[in-house]
Every structure is written in C-alpha cells, then in structure tokens.
Amino acid sequence: MTSSAPDDVVATLRDFVDRIDAVDPAAAVLGEIEVRVAGDVAVDKVRLTLTAPVARALVEALRGYHDPRDRGCCDHCGGRRLDDNFLCLDCHRPSGLFGQMIMERAARHGRDRAAVGYE
Ligand SMILES: [Zn+2]
C-alpha cells in the first residue's frame, strides 16, 4: 500500500469535486467541505463547494472503499485486526475455517520437522 502525502489529499479532493461539478455545473449547493492538512512547509487549507452530486459521489466513494488489509472480523472476539494468516492480533486465535486450516498445517509441518530431527 502506498502512502499519500497531505498535498495529494488536497489535490485529489479538488480533482474529485472538479470532475463532478463539470458534468453538473448548476447542481444545488448543500454547503462546504473544509480540509486542513499539515504539509512540510505550512498548513494547507482548502474549502470546496459541496453540491448534491458531489455529496452523493463522496458518500459512494467512501462507502465503496475496502482496505486491502481488512480481512473481516475475528470469529472469537470480533476484532478487526487479522494478519495475513487470519490470526487475530487481539485474541491470538485463528479466525474462520481458513485460519484454522493454516494453523493445522503449521502444526503438522512442525511435527514433521521434529520427526526428521530438524527441531
Ligand atoms: Zn480475536
């Protein structure tokens, strides 16, 4: 995952609003969005007009976003921090059938290594 600089956030928001306003320039104005981000040199502040189409698009975009690190909730504690092996970082138990299979395979692998004298 790449990180975004504060300037990227402001530029991306401006571009997002401009793209939507371009196709519906007479849309009803609902209000404003003000964003302040601290960059390397100064605090950058931007005020964007929030029209009905921009509001709708922003809500859809935010609701549609899925963080690739989000692997759902732990079956045991409900926590949202599952690692790549579906091991819960909160209760330290494997979550779901896939997590259980990985744990069983790892345990079997450990027994096999011990049986041939690696451990
Ligand atoms: Zn858990």
Short description:
This protein is of the alpha+beta class and 119 residues long. 43% of the residues lie in helices and 16% in strands. The two termini are 36 Å apart.
Note the main attributes of this structure:
43% helix, binds zinc ion, 2 domains, alpha+beta, 16% strand, 119 residues, elongated, two-stranded antiparallel sheet
Look at the helices and sheets and give the structural class.
alpha+beta
Q: What count of structural domains?
A: 2
Helix content: 40-55%
Q: What ligands can be seen in this structure?
A: zinc ion
Number of helices: 3
Overall number of strands: 2
In terms of DSSP E residues, the strand content is 15-25%
Radius of gyration, whole Å = 23 Å
Straight-line distance between termini: 36 Å
Largest sheet: 2 strands, antiparallel
- Element-by-element helix/strand order: HEEHH
The rough form would be described as: elongated
Mean pLDDT: 87
Question: Can you walk through the features of this model?
Answer:
By secondary structure, the chain is of the alpha+beta class. It folds into 2 domains: 6-64, no CATH class; 69-119, no CATH class. The chain has 3 helices and 2 strands. The chain has helices spanning 6-23, 52-64, 96-115; strands at 29-38, 43-51. A two-stranded antiparallel sheet has the order 1-2. A hairpin with a 4-residue loop joins strand 1 (29-38) and strand 2 (43-51). It is elongated and about 75 Å long. The two termini are 36 Å apart. The mean pLDDT is 87. The site of zinc ion has 8 residues, from loops.
